[in-house]
Amino acid sequence: MRRPLVVGNWKMHGTRESVRDLLAALLQGLPGNLAVEVGVCPAYVFIPQAFEQLQSSPILLGAQNVADREVGAFTGEVSAAMLKEFGCHLAIVGHSERRQFYNESDALIAARYQQAIKHGLCPILCIGETLKQREAGQTFEVVDAQLDAVLERAGLDSLAHAVIAYEPVWAIGTGRTATPEQAQEVHAYIRQKLAAQDRRIAENVRILYGGSVNAENAKALFAMPDIDGGLIGGASLKADSFLTIVQAAGETC
User: Which pTM value belongs to this model?
Assistant: First the structure.
């Protein structure tokens, strides 16, 4: 059985004080016998602080991106090896905001993913369609292209060490969300696509939902058979709402 995973993507939010307080509240509020894996991805500058605070805790630390290169003159990038040195276990790659606002291509995202795998980070590979693409009936075509670019570079077996996050772009930060049935349809498609190549990989890979999950809709989303948790944006910045989402994921175990 796939263990649910709930990851908070804090995006470009936080101060030293707010990060400290949020982590303290999460550590205090998480149950001792945690059935769900929980992670947080703060901004790069707060990773060392979070690393110190989360030592010996069940919360996994992650980054919001990872460089596509090993080392060198690549101003502004942070390598997988650097992230590992500060205790990171997870790395988000291909988030829709990186694709949309910074023009990250499928090829670049595949290279970032490969670097994460190479250095023992668990990439959270984000894939999903825009509203225009969905209305044009291109959802599966977009998902195929984004996923295939990574598999062609890193191989299907890499998914044994990775997580997929389906995030419909039209439901991120808009207050809109896919219905549980809409989300399940795409999650099931992704799993079936992988099963055509390797049923074992398909059955074991965790596929998260990443489109405006909140305390109110989490239970219905996580009840779907192919939704294995969530990549949480705004709701992860408030301890109470994030803990409620974690609890909802735990109820599916």
Answer: 0.97
Count how many residues are written for the chain: 253
Check if the beta carbon of residue 79 is closer than 8 Å to that of residue 71. yes
Q: 196 burial class (0-12, 13-18, 19+ CB within 10 angstroms)?
A: exposed
Catalytic residues: 95, 167
- Angle at CA of residue 43, ends 123 and 73, nearest 5°: 75
Closest CA to 231 of 118, 96, 134: 96
Question: Which pLDDT tens digit goes with each residue over 124-159?
Answer: 999 999 989 998 999 999 999 999 999 999 999 999
The answer to whether the beta carbons of residues 109 and 116 sit under 8 Å apart is: no
Indicate whether 240 pLDDT > 70.
Answer: yes
Spatial separation of the C-alpha atoms in residues 230 and 118, rounded to whole Å? 24
User: Distance of CA 131 to CAs 138, 139, 166, 216, Å?
Assistant: 10, 9, 14, 23
- What's the rounded Cα separation, in Å, for the pair 163 and 122? 7
Q: Which residues pair with 39 in a beta bridge?
A: 7, 60
Domains of the chain (ranges, CATH numbers): 5-250 (3.20.20.70)
Task: Kindly provide the b/e burial profile for residues 163-186, where b requires at least 16 CB atoms within 10 angstroms of the residue's own CB.
Answer: bbbbbbbbbbeeeebbebebbbeb
